[in-house]
Amino acid sequence: MEVDVVVVGGGAMGSAAAWQLARRGRSVVLLEQFEQGHHIGASHGATRNFNMAYAEADYLDLVTEAKDLWGELEGETGTQLLDLVGLVNHGNVRRLREVRSSHAARGIESHFIPAAEAAERWRGMNFRSDVLVVPGSGRVRAADALLALRQAAEAHGARFDYSTPVRDIRVDGDRAVVVIDSGEITARRVVVTAGAWTGKLLGNRVTLPELVVTQEQPAHFTPLDDSLAWPSFNHNPDPDDPRDAYWYSPVYGMLTPGEGVKAGWHGVGPVTDPDARSFTPEPVQLEALVRYVREWLPGVDAESAVPISCTYTSTANEDFVLDRFGPVVVGAGFSGHGFKFTPAIGRVLADLSDGGGAPARFTARR
Predict the structure, then answer these.
(1) Which neighbouring-strand residues pair with 351?
(2) Is the pLDDT of residue 366 over 70?
(3) Taking Cα atoms as reference points, which of 325, 332, 21, 24 lies closest to residue 6?
(4) Phi and psi (nearest 5°) for 343?
(5) Is the pLDDT of residue 255 over 90?
(6) How far is Cα 99 from Cα 106, in angstroms, rounded to an integer?
(7) What is the pLDDT of residues 109-146, one digit of tens each?
(8) 283: helix, strand or coil
(9) pLDDT at 240
(10) Residue among 331, 362, 335, 344 at smallest CA distance from 8
């Protein structure tokens, strides 16, 4: 078989790349090693934060584009994907002032409110310092987004093959050969969005920043009052306050309708092999998360934690990797804050496949 592009990895980024490429008229086959809707990687689950609270220009460019593209995907599929319930950011006010300054320069709506006002508005949460509110943020319906991306890609002619592991990728001149159990597929480009399996699949074929795979364990907590309003939230520890010394990292969270309020540490789980995960929560980190929830989220039952197991694949500075090496395009290192950018990442990967570039911040050889 011969096609324009093979996409390896059917999570959020691979599905978005397939959509963007197919809508440009490219012939696309997406290969995913697991079944549709599996819970083994990083793209499963019902919700993710849609968070525009960045200060860096490259990220603000991407998230602004992503918001527009989520809207286009909603229009193509008739599926609601964004719930703009607002986002609150608190702790480390110095960093939040940088974010607010960048927003003001770009005309992105955000504003500070005092902690007491925030606590009155969102009674399920506690606040210690000024809160940066971003009304145009909220949450992405992640599971629905995966289905919508596939629907839109297939409507433009893409083919999605699940339970189809890739055994090898060979470069043959300006083309690539993808080896699967049933044979070989030759393509002008191969887009690798394999998440935690990126390093295993590519080996030494390309030179990437180190990709560290960790097993993370956010949890859902049962709300005590269903009438409470829940924005999405990010909470950074105050580096000058000893009361935050037990924190492992910043905390993120959002309401997941039907499952509870999700909260989790960010990127501090144990390093793992994605093919040999325990799926078992690390008890000390979980105990610290329950303590955080007890102190900061009075609107939920802190003892009701239902842990979730997922993988992060991260670079040292948490920047993404978006680059091309001959006929091989790589998208990696998204974990922890990538999902919100999904459709814009798909556009960048499609550009790379078509011979274009990516922002210098995200190239492997920066």
Answers:
(1) none
(2) no
(3) 21
(4) -65, -30
(5) yes
(6) 11
(7) 999 999 999 999 999 999 999 999 999 999 999 999 99
(8) helix
(9) 83
(10) 331
Return the half-sphere exposure (C-beta side, CA atoms, 13 A cut-off) of residue 38.
14
Residue among 353, 352, 350 nearest 20 (CA): 350
Sign of CA dihedral 310, 150, 58, 359: positive
Predicted model pTM: 0.96
365: pLDDT strictly greater than 70: no
């006929």: which residue's tokens?
Answer: 327
Crossing angle (nearest 10°) for helices 142-155 and 342-353: 40
Instruction: Please say whether the beta carbons of 45 and 182 come within 8 A.
Output: no
Alpha-carbon dihedral 155, 158, 164, 168, rounded to 10 degrees: -160
Q: Which of 338, 339, 319, 321 is nearest to 330 (CA)?
A: 321
pLDDT digits (tens, 9 = 90+) for 320-363: 999 999 999 999 999 889 999 999 999 999 999 999 999 999 99
Taking CA atoms, 305 is separated from 261, 292, 347, in Å, by 10, 12, 37
Rounded-to-integer distance, Cα 336 and Cα 150, Å: 23
Both structure tokens of 60? 């603000």
Structure tokens at 172: 């043959």
Tokens of 342: 């999904």
Lowest mean pLDDT among 41-55, 67-81, 152-166: 41-55
